[in-house]
Amino acid sequence: MKPQEVLFWSVAFPGFGQLLNHSYIKGILFILLEFLINVNAKFNSMIYFSFRGETHYALEVANFDWLMFYPCVYFFSMWDAFKDAGGGTQNYSFLPFVFSAYFVTFGLMISPKITILNWFPGPVFFPMLSVIPGLLVGFLLKKWCNRKA
Q1: Where are the transmembrane segments (predicted)?
Q2: Strand partners, 116
Q3: Residues with Cβ < 8 Å from 89, sequence gap 6 or more?
Q4: Which uninterrupted H or E stretch holds 121?
Q5: Is 69 helix (H, G, I), strand (E, B) or coil?
Q6: Residue 82: what pLDDT?
Q7: Could you give the C-alpha distances from 99 to 67, 128, 138, 142, in angstroms and in order?
Q8: Which of 3, 116, 125, 147 is the 20 to 30 Å CA partner of 16?
């Protein structure tokens, strides 16, 4: 399998990339972690209310104690599957994944404070938007580190 294909399956659901790479134990572990975090964080309810424009309900049902685990598991799953499929051969290629996880986690922490009129962007959309600066910083830092090496 191509590394990009495995990466996209991991984006769809943590653990699927590992299953495609024949790393069954890791794949099942990531799937179980995703379910555990998703159910305890009430993530699907948050997504439902956010897409309906009812961000105040999404904030009410969210369990941020559990939700804080999600970005790290999600992005580590993507990195692991991508790397095991032969991607990420360049030095520091993990940095975009690390900084995306960091920025999404930070976005989760501040999303209740910046929700405007209890509507936008909320605990789902703001962290999703935080992936963009995370990738940007990660790729720029990767490029800078590789130039110095």
Answers
A1: 94-112, 124-141
A2: 120
A3: none
A4: none
A5: coil
A6: 96
A7: 17, 13, 5, 11
A8: 125
Q: Residue 64: enclosing H or E segment and its boundaries?
A: helix 64-67
Contacts of 86 (CB under 8 A, 6+ apart): 3
- Quick one: pLDDT at residue 119? 64
The first and second tokens of residue 111, run together, are 């999303």
Residues ≥6 apart with Cβ < 8 Å to 35: none
- Domains of the chain, by residue range, sit at 3-148
Amino acid at 132: I
Which residues are registered as beta bridge partners of 120? 116
* Residue 21 · residue 10 · CB < 8 Å: no
Q: Which three-class secondary structure state does DSSP give residue 116? A: strand
pLDDT of residue 124: 92
Classify residue 120 by its DSSP letter: B
N- to C-terminal Cα separation, the chain = 30
- Positive or negative, the CA dihedral 107, 129, 1, 17 is positive
b vs e for 136-148, b when ≥16 Cβ sit within 10 Å of the residue's Cβ? ebbeeebeeeeee
